[in-house]
């Protein structure tokens, strides 16, 4: 739609009044680094940018300070929040501990650890077959994995909860066990697609040389392909963790009673508890926040690459 | 050619080569089958039944569908879902675009800023929900209300006012997804050919025109992807609403999935809830296929 526009617009632009009026700026290389042509010298535009950046910081990051300050403030009424704690205390964490927050965190950590391990193994195996083997029906299998992305827990929640209560063929009741959350997370289409794309780019020469040396399939994957896939595994790992930590509906429907909840789901228990104030809820929120915060800050680069790459490849 | 005279050993090697990929695929396919495709099939199946525990299910044809689609609370939920989905997607894309333009660059301070601004996108939705509940606290000492109080505005019932609750939910959704979109748009911006900017400056093009005719066309693919992801996400929005308002007050923020959840888990109407999920699934599938088709046609041109 706009492809023809760009061609017609460029020769025409110098003739327009707007084009002429701003055409007299000094051409410093920095001006071409960004779409808006931000200058890195102090001036009006620079000051405006600093101001807007502070505003963005205030909107998107400052609320996180209130979580921490609220969690360390003793305020049973709980409605007054500020960016810095008034009188710091650990009472909120103690109360949250009495309500079993550490058990919920334990559930979360087991699920996140087990789920991520299973997800990485399952998706790597599938990706290896899809990327390094030619077989009939490969395109179909690719499409099946892509389709799993169309079936998030929200859409299949009701039948999935029935399936978790009575797994077909083996008739196991997974409800109330960590497996009820871990197993449905195993086959994640996104990881399969991303790892497949990455493994495809490994030159066949490396594989052929190894095969001549009599290397079997498992060793090929473990010792030849995987070491070359470390960046992609990092992306799959960090995105997988964030995705699992964010799960809400799945732990909710897989639980038999509230003691099976993960820490994120358990926040609602703290909130509806009439005996505890919002300070305790925020203490719980801090506990639920910290693991994902650590993972994010440590593996930020992988995360950002993954989101950008996953998005451009669809 | 060789197949007709293959010696047994070679044939065994051939079958082994054919079996190996399936062994690697087996765990993934099994898990996807049991926990994704089987529930989907079961959901479609149940949507045609009156599900009665212990009494046995009774085939009732399309009754569940007509019941759900004529239920006025579901009809309201369609409106809310569309308003929330579209408003949230458009808002998050616009704000994400603005953020990307603002925070584009190589400086270390900008990298730090991006790290901080991206925080909402990596935080679990439940945590975000609790945070916003407290920011929206309805008395004048709540975080947002104390700010409004300074401006001389009375305490606003962000979540308790049925006319306002949906917009409050939308604001939170935009807050979550704008940084996420920012990252995708930034990746698009990084791919814009810098010499185009230089050429535009040489031609004396204004900043606005440069943005309109150079930057926007170049990041159009990134924007299309963001839009696709956001629309589909918007239709099946659940957790955001569930943790912030639970669908209330008076059903004013009830979206399609919270409605289906209430029907299935609170009222135990498995058939009706399944029908609602199948409708959503069909709409999402249809939308994805349409957008992909449009995108392909757009690329071909």
From TrEMBL, chain B:
Keywords, comma-separated and alphabetical: Cell membrane, Membrane, Transmembrane, Transmembrane helix, Transport
Localisation: Cell membrane
Pfam families reported for this sequence: BPD_transp_1
SUPFAM superfamilies from the UniProt entry: MetI-like (SSF161098)
ABC transmembrane type-1 domain mapped to chain residues: 78-291
Listed InterPro entries: ABC_transporter_permease (IPR051393), MetI-like (IPR000515), MetI-like_sf (IPR035906)
Residue ranges of the TM segments: 19-38, 77-103, 115-135, 164-192, 213-232, 270-291
Membrane topology qualifier: Multi-pass membrane protein
PANTHER family in alphabetical order: ABC TRANSPORTER PERMEASE PROTEIN, INNER MEMBRANE ABC TRANSPORTER PERMEASE PROTEIN YCJO
Protein family according to the UniProt entry: Belongs to the binding-protein-dependent transport system permease family.
Protein name: Sugar ABC transporter permease
Lineage, top ranks: Bacteria, Bacillati, Actinomycetota, Actinomycetes, Kitasatosporales
């Amino acid at each position: 739609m706009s492809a023809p526009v760009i061609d017609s617009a460029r020769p025409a632009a110098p003739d327009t009044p707007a084009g002429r009026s701003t055409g007299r700026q000094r051409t410093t290389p920095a001006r071409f680094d960004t779409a808006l042509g931000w200058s890195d010298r102090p001036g009006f535009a620079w000051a405006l940018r600093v101001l807007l950046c502070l505003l963005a910081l205030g909107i998107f990051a400052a609320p996180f300070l209130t979580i921490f300050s609220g969690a360390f403030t003793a305020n049973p009424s709980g409605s007054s929040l500020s960016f810095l704690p008034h009188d710091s205390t650990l009472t909120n964490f103690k109360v949250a501990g009495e309500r079993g927050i550490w058990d919920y965190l334990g559930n979360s950590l087991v699920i996140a650890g087990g789920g991520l391990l299973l997800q990485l193994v399952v998706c790597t195996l599938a990706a290896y077959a899809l990327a390094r083997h030619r077989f009939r029906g490969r395109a179909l299998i690719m499409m099946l994995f892509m389709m799993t992305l169309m079936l998030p827990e929200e859409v299949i929640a009701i039948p999935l909860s029935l399936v978790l209560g009575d797994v077909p063929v083996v008739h196991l009741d997974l409800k109330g066990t960590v497996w009820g959350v871990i197993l449905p997370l195993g086959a994640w289409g996104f990881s399969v697609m991303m790892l497949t794309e990455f493994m495809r780019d490994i030159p066949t020469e490396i594989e052929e040389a190894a095969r001549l040396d009599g290397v079997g399939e498992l060793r090929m994957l473990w010792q030849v392909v995987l070491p070359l896939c470390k960046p992609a595994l990092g992306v799959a790992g960090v995105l997988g963790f964030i995705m699992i930590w964010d799960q809400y509906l799945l732990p909710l429907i897989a639980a038999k009673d509230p003691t099976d909840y993960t820490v994120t789901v358990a926040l609602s228990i703290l909130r509806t508890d009439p005996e505890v104030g919002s300070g305790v809820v925020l203490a719980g929120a801090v506990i639920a926040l910290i693991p994902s915060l650590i993972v994010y800050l440590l593996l930020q680069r992988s995360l950002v690459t993954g989101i950008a790459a996953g998005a451009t490849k669809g | 050619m060789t197949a007709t005279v293959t010696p047994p050993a070679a044939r065994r090697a051939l079958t082994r080569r054919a079996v190996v990929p399936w062994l690697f695929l087996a765990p993934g396919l099994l898990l996807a089958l049991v926990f994704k495709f089987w529930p989907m099939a079961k959901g479609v199946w149940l949507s045609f039944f009156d599900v009665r525990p212990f009494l046995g299910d009774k085939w009732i044809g399309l009754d569940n569908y007509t019941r759900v689609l004529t239920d006025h609370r579901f009809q309201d939920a369609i409106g809310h879902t569309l308003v929330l989905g579209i408003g949230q997607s458009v808002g998050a894309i616009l704000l994400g675009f603005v953020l990307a333009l603002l925070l584009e660059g190589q400086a270390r301070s900008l990298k730090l800023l991006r790290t901080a601004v991206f925080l909402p996108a990596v935080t679990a939705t439940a945590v975000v929900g609790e945070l916003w509940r407290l920011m929206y606290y309805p008395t004048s000492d709540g975080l947002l209300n104390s700010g409004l109080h300074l401006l001389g505005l009375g305490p606003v019932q962000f979540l308790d006012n049925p006319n306002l609750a949906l917009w409050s939910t939308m604001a939170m959704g935009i807050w979550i997804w704008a940084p996420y979109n920012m990252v995708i748009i930034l990746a698009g911006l990084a791919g814009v050919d810098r010499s185009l900017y230089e050429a535009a400056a040489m031609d004396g093009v204004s900043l606005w025109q440069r943005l309109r005719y150079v930057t926007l066309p170049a990041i159009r693919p990134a924007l299309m992807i963001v839009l696709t992801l956001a629309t589909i996400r918007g239709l099946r929005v659940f957790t955001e609403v569930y943790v912030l308002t639970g669908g209330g007050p008076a059903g004013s923020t009830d979206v399609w999935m919270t409605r289906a959840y209430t029907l299935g888990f609170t009222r135990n109407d498995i058939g009706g809830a399944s029908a609602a999920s199948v409708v959503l699934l069909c709409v999402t599938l249809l939308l994805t296929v349409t957008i992909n088709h449009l995108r392909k046609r757009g690329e071909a041109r």
